[in-house]
Amino acid sequence: MQGVQNYIQENKDRFLEELLDLLRIPSVSADPKYKADVRKMAEATAEHLKKAGADQVEVFDTPGHPIVYGEKMVNPKAPTVLVYGHYDVQPADPLELWESPPFEPVVKKTALHPQGAIFARGACDDKGQMFMHVKAFEAMMKENYLPCNIKFMIEGEEEVGSKHLEEFCKANKKKLACDVVLVSDTSIINNDTPSLTVGLRGLCYMEVEVTGPNRDLHSGVYGGAVANPINVLCDLISSLHDKKRRITVEGFYDDIEKVSSKERKLMNQVPFSEKEFKKDLGVEELLGESGYTPIEHTGIRPTLDVNGMWGGYIGEGAKTVLPSKAYAKISMRLVPNQDPEKIEKLFIKHFQKIAPKYVQVKVTAHHGGHPVVTPTNSPEYKAAEKAMEKAFGKKPVPQRGGGSIPIIAMFDQVLKAKSILMGFGLDSDAIHSPNEHYGLFNYYKGISTIPYFYQYYAESLK
Length: 462
Ligand code: BES
Ligand code: MN
Ligand code: MN
Known about the structure:
Layout: H1 2-10, H2 12-23, H3 35-52, E1 55-60, E2 67-72, E3 80-86, E4 106-108, E5 117-119, H4 127-142, E6 149-155, H5 165-171, E7 180-183, E8 187-188, E9 195-200, E10 202-211, E11 217-218, H6 229-238, H7 261-267, H8 274-281, H9 294-299, E12 303-311, E13 321-322, E14 325-334, H10 340-354, E15 360-369, E16 372-373, H11 379-392, E17 397-400, H12 407-415, E18 419-421, E19 425-426, E20 437-439, H13 440-460
Parallel strand pairs: 3-6, 3-7, 7-18, 8-19, 9-17
Antiparallel strand pairs: 1-2, 2-6, 4-5, 5-20, 9-16, 10-14, 10-15, 11-13, 12-14
One manganese (II) ion (MN) binds near residues 90, 125, 159, 431 and 432.
């Protein structure tokens, strides 16, 4: 193992340069304009796997973006770890808010990253974190230290709902057979406080269209007598929360698993400064469901948020118009045991019910995903815990994450394997936002932690 760690130290600079090259490929999965770049990124990932020493490396085409696979089977008696990650990234918009271009990575120091951070779209989510696994694998291969069988499955559609990965997993159950799935696509509390993510929220994503009059109207000639669909949509949306910031969709909370007061107490012991949190976000006050702390708001409580809203005139200057239509994209983050399909039905029913006669509403669903909680008493959790403790000198804190990786629940169902969510980003790394970055400390710490996981995991199953 010392050899592996030395190899990582000796090759640090190259590991960084290689990541910077990958970050130059704009693999935006949501925008068809980047389809060729997404493929280029898949090929580059496959090439790296091959060079690191993986066998059976292949870029699998799907009706969407390709899936990259590679493996190293060393011993049929050793446990098999499936590494999952994604090489696609979110769109970089709004471009004007980036301090340096999103696909021209630069390393800069920040208050939280005094050793420097890589600024680029995908630096943290998830190219930087995915690539840590490739580099840790390379180090282990070069030093001839591979205590587990390793399979890689890196997809290009995570940011658009992993549409084709389920089918791929179902069709390749044997190929993907594993004892555990290892994922680095989440965050730690801060660089002095390692944590392991033990829960992710689910997702239910809806779009609503409200139609008023059959055409856009002059807001003076008709205004006052006819319902304005944007005004109506605003009323409808504001009625979706009550005074206590609880969601008013009937039946919304019915299936939620009660979290014990002991667990809630524990959860609130993690280092968290409300003052710092507000300062970082530039807000005077927080707003969340009454009776819960901010940690609980993002960890164990569901949400309903408008992600975008449009209609009427939004161009330069002013146009007096009473629009015919108004739209909103609304997402709900779900917690155990809320079922995204059931919530979708409840939302549609509720929205139809509250819609007044003077408009028509159409509600449609986008992708969704189930929430997950992972056990903390399993051999794989213990191995991840030990690995982080070894690398950080501190035992990681189990923490529920507020984000979603919808495909994790599917791994459980289809591959019958639990996941270990061992991410190394910081919540403040601005993933999905302008100026996304990933700390060099985090990148290198991740690379050196991963081999320990394989070591302890193999040892624990001997
Ligand atoms: N890596 C994130 C999820 C994440 C980030 C989990 C930080 C925990 C901490 C992932 O790439 C992501 O952005 N997921 C989407 C869902 C997807 C269906 C677009 C999300 O959470 O919005
Ligand atoms: Mn991600
Ligand atoms: Mn993401």
